[in-house]
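Dear support,

I submitted the protein below through the web form. The confirmation email said the job was done, but the results page showed an empty box. After a refresh the structure appeared. I'm attaching both so you can tell me whether what I see now is the final result or a partial one.
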Amino acid sequence: MKSIIAIDGPAGAGKSTIAKSLAEALNYLYIDTGAMYRAVAYQALQQEAPLDNAEQLGQIAAQAQLDMRVENGENRIFLNGNDITKEIRLPHISAIASTVSAVPQVREQLVPKQRELAERGRAVLDGRDIGTVVLPQADCKIYLTASLDERAERRYKELLGRGLPADLAEVRQDIEQRDYQDTHRETSPLRQAEDAKYLDTTGLSIEQVLQQVLQLAEAAE
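What the results page shows now:
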């Protein structure tokens, strides 16, 4: 099995769920890169930093002490020692995370941290530009997607399952907006790497998707 697996795709495609399950199945480290950008977005909101101030956002990213670890079988993310795992999944954080992640100064601070973690080997990473920018040398690249309606339904159920307030129409609108922002941003736009395997998960269960991803990873050996 290869040592670095990159999974990219649009919002709500199930990247985090599959990447985490894949890492568990292979006994690999799961590096949640999206959570890192969400953490910066969360901190920016806490500090009431203007989202159009790239330099300030970059400073926030530089000063953020981010840590990831598994506790009771669940991936947790800590910002400056505080567990913010649940907070960064709130809809209003999702709405600005895409904007924050497109800021070059923020990426300059977080991408090296992601590479450093991945270079330890035996890692699974998911995001928007893992296979194209962060780790173009990844041993296995997968582009995971699904229809807009299905992605919205999945995210809606995920929020409800976490005990968070959610409205399906608002979730769908948020994902549609994030799709546009992610594919049209100047810095590292969302796109499928030329050597990535395309996988449309519409209508598939988590277990079905996981089995297909495992097959793709094994075939990349």
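Response: this is the final, complete result; the empty box was a page-load delay. Residues 19 and 112 are 20 Å apart (CA to CA).
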